Amino acid sequence: MPMPAIQKFDSRDQRTALGASTVAFTVCFAAWTIFAIIGIRIREELGLTETEFGLLVGTPILMGSLIRVLLGIWTDRYGGRVVFVATMLAAAAATFILTYAHTYPQMLLAALGVGIAGGSFAVGVAYVSRWFPPERQGVALGIFGAGNVGSAVTKLLAPLVLVAWGWQAVAEIWAAALVVMAVIFWFTTKDDPVLVERRRTGVKPQSAWLELEPLKNIQVWRFSLYYFFVFGAFVALALWLPQYLVGVYGLDIRTAGVIAACFSIPASLFRAYGGHLSDVYGARRVLYWTFLVSVIATFILAYPPADYAVRTVAGPITFHIEMGLVGFTVTVFILGFFMALGKAAVYKHIPVYYPNHVGAVGGLVGMIGGLGGFVLPILFGVLLDLTGLWTSCFMALFLLVSVALLWMHFAIRQMERGVTGKALEELPPFPEMQGMPQPEKVISADETVLTDWRPEDPSFWATKGRRIARRNLWLSIPALLLSFAIWQVWSVVVAKLPLVGFTFTTDQLFWLAALPGISGATFRIFYSFMVPIFGGRLWTTLTTWSLIIPALGIGYAVQHPDTPYIVFLLLALLCGFGGGNFASSMSNISFFFPRSEKGNALALNAGLGNLGVSVVQFVVPLVITAGIFGWFGGDPVMTKGPAGEAPLWLQNAGFFFVPFIAISAFASWFGMNDIASAKASFAEQAVIFQRRHNWIMCWLYTGTFGSFIGYSAGFPLLTKTLFPDIHALQFAFLGPLVGALSRSATGWLADRYGGARVTFWVFVLMMVGAGGVLWFIATKDQPGAFWGFFISFLVLFFATGVGNASTFQMIPAIMGREMIRLMPDAAPEARRLQAEKESAAITGFTSAIAAFGAFFIPMGYGLSIKFTGGAEAALWAFLIFYVSCLVLTWVAYTRKGGLLHDIERGKRNTAGKAAAAE
Questions:
Q1: Mean pLDDT over each residue of the chain, to the nearest integer
Q2: Assigned superfamily of 12-196+214-414
Q3: Extended strands (E) in 617-770
Q4: Which DSSP string corresponds to 495-507?
Q5: Contacts for 902 with CB less than 8 Å, ≥ 6 apart
Q6: Tens digits of per-residue pLDDT, 867-893?
């Protein structure tokens, strides 16, 4: 029967149903994949072959898959609440009975009962979908599907219980958790609206045969094959990875479980992302990206360790190729992320096309996907026994996803061939959807997208705009602070690597410190244009999540002195993700504020974000001296110090930031907004390369921010070189701190007096600071020379902070003025929108160019010392550069007749006076 009007039901009941179902599914999924951990110990006790082990871990998956159709039908007939509770209680009983099994056949029989927990997916899909209208079902089912994270829960917690009390205790505790969850679910949820309406009207449920009627459509079965990879392969890898990590990398079961969770967690939690992306961009595009990235990832993972010998005129050159643990962890994280998107994209269609048969159809699709979780682990075991290659499992997945991608692509092209115009628009996303009942098209009101945004309207700004803009700003700031922290973390880590056993040369250490600057600046070029393309909310969330990759990578890499140098180079480059985020963050915030408040808003965002440089230089030396994560964070290395030996947890330099990154990413997703009018393609934004003021501002911002980030990276090394008796690291954080605070605290100056006027005096002050540094270097043997040198640098840092704020305030003022010349016939609102888009792009692009200062200033010191024996030549070059910036600011903007002269002094331009005279 059709769903009753959803507005009749309390939204609190909806949230309760979704929340309780998601938690219940998480507990069920944890029990369903329990053999991924305890199976390893059982295999040792019973002496199982790889094939027998694959059958053992796959048996619950088989049962959980086959039972989904039946449970789905029962849910459609009797309601999800009672069926969900019954499913959990049955699974709990089987899981507890497992502890009494002692032979392999007994284990397989008990595993069939444990598999009942996997059937809960079909129950939950039908139950949850009945609480939400079609336009909200994609996101609701995406959130529910994130219960797949139960696999990660098992991987993280089960090894602890297993090591402490044995595998039987794991089964007992997981069974108890199912019982407790069943009780909580029963007393906190209500019967779904369809069941309540059916009881009220006395309508009898359809017969089981009518429930199965949609399954006669062969296209439903064809569509299920997509799910075989995105879900089935996920389940298979969730089961297989712990023993893969033990066998390939020699890890203990606890560490293997933690790293395997790096696959399971993104493959589960990001399912909600997939639902949103499918709603916004279309399921077809999401599934294309899923298959394309999966093809690349599985190909990389499938490559076996190999030794090569190349014959040259100088003799054979041999080298070894093998994926290290860090590279493996990062790659499976990416694979899991896109699998999560694909799962949501596939399942989005079922409640839309079959609203009255969600249980049956959803059960079938889930069954086919679940069968992948049964078949593939067995296949992995067989391939390992036959080939002896651990990577053979990824070879199989590479072939599977390649076939899926090609089949989908050619099927879509076949469907679209010869169809044009309106008929083409009415085609379903996939050919598998042809013949299904057409869904009712409902326009979803997405509160996260601001379709009406008028910051220059005083009334709109006061009543609504300011509150939204400030919320986005205060969510952007911590994300940007973490980005700067990850970007600059190598400035601290490289100094400690020799203490924990690494034998890298000084030149190698220098490159580790310099590479984040290069990659961060390069990423900024691309990030500059991403916000108008993807939206600030989505892009901020994704780029914040990306910081976890280098953070975790550093944490694992520094624990093993035999980690190849190439791995550290790769991690240093990946830290550039943090540097790149600045461009998109500033571009995003610039859209939210009116021109009169842009300077201060951008100053707060950038200034407080820049504090990440000081945070990393102040916090990391503290956290690496304590075991703040216990056994989970790894063992310390004993290092020699002035007070004797002391433990050092260098891995905390990366691990410390991981929980904060996760919190910030979730806050960005649930709290930030997109602005509909800010959408623009790359081609539309690329017009900035034709604007001469874009290149002028690149030059000026390099003088301010390029100096800030370059001095931050090079000050400790320069101080240590010039004043070897001074412990420079204890003062290193003060310079970036002064620069960051001055930026955040002085944005109002540019808003009040004009960005160009402030920038002019900034370069005067920077010339004074650079001159002071040169003076005290020349007299460095005199008493108090260091303090004069240090204060001069603080002056430089202070001036760069003020200049960073003032230059960014100039950009929207410049483009607002330029649009009058470039678009003389356009309406004021059209000029404002174009100025906003170009200002955002220029803001990001100038920050990209200026970020290269993080590399060139330390490099300038090194070259100056190498060729002249001192740093003076580099500082003279910087001083001359500041003179050029001063002249350029005056000529282009502040002189009488300059572009901003009249605006910043409150005078009317010549045209305005002539109009007034008339």
A1: 77
A2: MFS general substrate transporter like domains (1.20.1250.20)
A3: 637-641, 644-648, 674-675
A4: HHGGGGT----HH
A5: 908, 909
A6: 887 788 888 988 999 999 999 999 888
